[in-house]
Write a structure and sequence with these properties.
4 domains, Oxidized Rhodanese, domain 1, 4-stranded parallel beta sheet, about 10% strand, 20 helices, single chain
Length: about 525
């Protein structure tokens, strides 16, 4: 034990002040901002920032933080935030390890800010440039190595059932709360390592074996997760719901415990409600998987059933040309414009080549729209068949909203609103092979008979209709890629998993045929 990295992390952690460098009260947070002296940093992804942020915040995505220290002052107040505290905790811990003792976090994040009805901005802030303090190269490499390689999922397991499954499999568990909190109630089997002792006692925590840290609200666990990863403990994961989330999910407590915050209990309950809702949609998908893939059949449907056509591409794509009669509702805005989607007539969704349309179909299906189908060939297929093209914008209709479960709506909207550039797609076989080499788990959502005839080596077969019933086979702490035969079912699977909170999932639209055509190795049989 010892060395530059350990000494820096231990120095920071052993001297964490009261309050754990967090400003959780929105009024106190606003007072800090009102001074005009604090630099506010949003560590979410660019797409999240662009969709709306706290006024005045500059965007430095978490993974790039150590590469942009010239945007972080070392001699004035700095506040960091993310969506709901986890990434902000890791950012705070990383900067503190580098000697930035002027950094604090706003754990409620953008979610807490917007839910309080505070002003939201979409204007990008350039930010100023500052002198970077002298930092030991070994320490800098350790911090940047951790940040730049954070996988999808942000080293967090938020689902209680998956957390319990990991514990049942023998994962060590560490409670980083204070001894007094631990004595009042803890998760069975947990070892109490108060946060200020985490670095000093890091020898008790496995280096590569999966282990978990938790606290009361997730923030101290995020601080600890970052610090331990900087020290080389690559197997550490955080359980953000913490002890209250465990109790709210009726976990067996080792003591009496404290009162469970209502919002934590609601969040845990909503996870179950969302999974049940997704399963109801997936398990009832009929033959054909809600797709009309033949251009003749699609044209016949347009002529005979007079469907409502929705183009879910971006406005610029729509303006350049679209199927006559189609209205434009870009995919990311779909959940925000449900009053433009009818429930009492056939609806077709399409995009450029099927990937976004599959996600749109699944999103509407999860919300209870049972009148929607997709046209997977999309705009490319339509124009390749010399279908009529229009550049005349069509005004969407206004329709009565169906009754939608609020938890499901929140889950679907959160996923759609935050889809990044690239639409969560793995674009070719080489990119998929590289992802697999880096530890990605591959899931084949085709039927067992299709899988038996040939599949990507190592792929797990979970037929689409059973996906929500087999979540124990879908990891949350490493990348996941789903595929099928043509991309349509994979897009549905992608949307379903994302709505259920699997932020580590992408799809391979080319599917098994693209993998085989690229000359990659295939496997046959069960």
């Amino acid at each position: 034990m010892g060395g530059v990295v350990f000494d820096a992390v231990n120095e920071y952690m052993s001297n964490i002040p009261e309050g754990f460098m967090a400003v959780g009260d929105i009024e106190k947070f606003k007072e800090i901002l009102d001074t005009g002296e604090a630099t506010l940093i949003d560590v979410r992804e660019p797409s999240e920032y662009e969709a709306g942020h706290i006024p005045g915040a500059v965007n430095i995505p978490l993974r790039t933080l150590a590469q942009n220290l010239d945007k972080v002052p070392s001699d004035a107040s700095v506040m960091v935030y993310c969506a709901s505290g986890h990434r902000a905790g890791m950012a705070t811990s990383s900067l503190r390890s580098l000697g930035y003792d002027n950094v604090r976090a706003y754990p409620p994040g953008f979610k807490g800010w917007s839910e309080a009805g505070e002003e939201v901005s979409t204007d990008a802030v350039e930010g100023e440039t500052y002198d970077v303090p002298e930092i030991d190269p070994e320490l800098m490499a350790a911090v940047d190595g951790f940040l730049s390689n954070i996988p999808e999922g942000w080293y967090a397991v938020g689902d209680v059932e998956k957390f319990e499954a990991a514990l049942d499999a023998g994962a060590p568990l560490f409670d980083v709360r204070e001894p007094g909190e631990f004595e009042e109630g803890s998760i069975p089997g947990a070892v109490n390592v108060p946060i200020r002792e985490v670095a000093a006692r890091s020898a008790e925590i496995p280096m590569d074996e999966q282990s978990f840290v938790y606290c009361a609200s997730g923030f101290r666990a995020a601080l600890s997760t970052a610090a331990l990863h900087i020290l080389g403990h690559d197997g550490v994961r955080s359980f953000p719901p913490g002890y209250p989330g465990w109790e709210a999910a009726d976990g067996e407590a080792a003591g009496e415990g404290a009162e469970v915050p209502a919002e934590v209990a609601a969040a845990v309950e909503s996870d179950t409600a969302v999974v049940d809702g997704v399963d109801a949609f997936l398990s009832a998908i009929p033959e054909g998987f809600l797709a009309v893939g033949q251009i003749d059949a699609f044209q016949d449907a347009i002529a005979n059933t007079k469907p409502y056509l929705i183009d879910v591409r971006e406005p610029s794509e729509y303006e350049e040309g679209h199927i006559p009669g189609a209205v434009n509702i870009p995919l990311r805005t779909l959940a925000d414009n449900l009053d433009q989607v009818p429930t009492d007539q056939p609806v077709f969704v399409y995009c450029a080549s099927g990937h976004r349309a599959g996600q749109a179909l699944a999103s509407l299906g999860m919300l209870g729209y049972d009148n929607v189908k997709a046209f997977p060939p999309g705009w490319k297929g339509w124009t390749a068949a010399d279908g009529e093209v229009s550049t005349d914008a069509v005004e969407p209709g206004t329709f009565e909203l169906p009754e939608i479960d609020p938890q499901m709506l929140a889950a679907v909207a959160d996923y759609l609103n935050n889809i990044p550039e690239g639409w969560l797609a793995v674009h070719d076989a080489q990119e998929l092979a590289d992802a697999m080499d880096n530890g990605a788990v591959v899931i084949d959502v085709r039927e067992p008979s299709e899988y038996a005839e040939g599949y990507i080596p190592g792929a797990i077969n979970i037929p689409l209709r059973t996906l929500a019933q087999n979540l124990d086979q879908v990891p949350t702490d490493q990348p996941v890629v789903v595929y099928c035969a043509s991309g349509h079912r994979a897009a549905i699977a992608l949307a379903s998993l994302r709505a259920m909170g699997y932020s580590n999932v992408r799809a391979f639209p080319g599917g098994y045929p693209a993998w085989e055509a690229a000359g990659e190795e295939v496997a046959v049989g069960q």
